[in-house]
Structure formats: C-alpha cells, structure tokens
Amino acid sequence: MTMTPTMTTVEEPATKAPRRGGAIRYGRAVPFFVVPFGLLFILFYLLPIGYAIVQSLYTVERTGTFGPAREVFGGLEQYRRVFADGPFWASIGRVLLFGVVQVPVMLGLALLLALLLDSGLVKGRRFFRLAFFVPYAVPGVIAAIMWGFLYSPNLSPLKPVTSAVDLLSADFVLWAMANVVTWVYVGYNMLIIYSSLLAIPAEVYEAARLDGAGPARIAWSIKIPLVLPAIVLTTVFSIIGTLQLLAEPQVFRSFSSAVSSTYTPNLTVYSTSSVPNFNLAAAFSVVLALTTFVLSFAFLKFTSRSAR
User: Fold this and answer.
1) Which residues are registered as beta bridge partners of 110?
2) Which of 28, 81, 95, 295 has an alpha carbon 20 to 30 Å from 304's alpha carbon atom?
3) Range(s) of the chain covered by CATH 1.10.3720.10
4) CA distances (Å), origin 42, targets 48, 249, 282, 285
C-alpha cells in the first residue's frame, strides 16, 4: 500500500493595506505650504498686473486748461499712443541690439569660467568661485556709479584711455553700460552653469577618458551638451533682464548727455510716470511685458526644436 504525500500549502502573510490616516494627515498639511505662496503670488504678482492693465484702459480729461483732472474709460486709446510712440520703439530696438551683443559675450565668459573651475586646472577653486561671484553682490546702482567715475575723463584714474576714447559719448555709452552689466552678472551665470557641471556623474568622465578623450574633447562633447539646459535658463533670464534695463541708464544720465529719458523701455516707463501720466506708463509696461514674454517664449521654442 503506497501512501501519497499530502501537499501542504503555506499561506503567504497578507500584506497590510496602507493606512489612510497618514495620507489624510499629509493632505491636510498641504494647504499650510501652498496657501502662503498663493497669497503672496496673488498680492504681489497677479494683482499688480491686473491693476496695471485696468489703469492702461483709462485716460485723464480736464475741463478747460486748468480744470480738475478726472479719469475716464478710454478703451485702447493709451495703446494707440504707445504704438505711435517712436522713441519707445527706438528704445526697444536699442536694448535688443544691446542683448544681441552683450548676452552671448556674458554667457560665453560665464561658461568659460565654469569650465575652468570644473577642469581641475585651477588651484584654489573656492577662492576663485567666490571672487567671480562677488561683483553680483554689488548693487547695480553702486556698480553703475563706480564705472561711471571710471569712464569720466575728468575723474577717471585711467585718463590715457578716457582721453583717447570718450566712453560716455553717443557712440560708446551703450557698450559702456554693457560692460557694467557683464561685470556684474558673469559670476551669477557662472555659478548656475558650474552647479550644473557638478551634477554630472563622474562615471561619464571616466568612460570618456577610457575612450581616449582629452580635457578639451570632454568639455566640448560632454560638458557643454549636458549643461545646455542651464545655458538656456541663463539666456532666458538675460533676455528678460535686458528688456528691463533701468539702473545703469538712469545713473549714466548724470554722466552723459547721450542718455535721454527714453533711452531704454523701462526708463521710458519711469519718465512717463514721473510726469505724471500713470495711465500711459501702465500701457507702456503692459506692452513691454508682452514683448518680453513673446521673445522669451520664442527663444524657448527655438531651443526646444533644435534639441530634437
């Protein structure tokens, strides 16, 4: 008589269902983090934008020459004046020329400095990293005043240079301001690109060295392509900052007669609001914001298509 062995099945322990209490507890904590940001975003971003748009739709009327001023709804009248304002569009063209030259030079220097710091060829990287970043800690107004004195033929310690070339003349003052902006923001952009370089895994470099790639080849074929998102980010920041140029031309007006009250778009807005004509200044601001958005969005679309 043969006995057939009985198969005993071992039941696996049932997995415990996740507790919903933790999820509910964390869900209740979310508003404590979101609401403060949402309130600040609405109060200091959305509401000012909405107020500027509303103000741009009104005009000021007077009863007689010296009658009391009153605001009335004017529709798109202020925008008609904006698009007919030649100096405003000339100022936009001026800052676009400024950006076409200054932004590539600034970001090229920032990329070069970041690659040097990441290469290991530079000793004392902490010192140089801080030294490159220090100009960004100088307020823009202070930097413009400092460079304005250096450019002034009567005050500059570099009189042989300033006497031979008038850096505050109409032909050179735009590029004199470009030098100030470059000096201030190279270190800031360098730090963004350098942080992106530090995030690249070391195994990528080791594999490239095993394939016989040298430092120059690694920098060109590996580092620059991998930090391209950081370069795009800094370019977008630079486009926005170029169209918002204000501190440098405002300070340089006291050094050079070539800088008028409508030299840059933001200076036009500032001068118009000082008249005061807040409604027209609001229309200028709305058009400038839309122009900045269009240029930034177009650049992002162009870079995204090129990356495919």
Assistant:
1) none
2) 95
3) 86-306
4) 9, 31, 19, 19
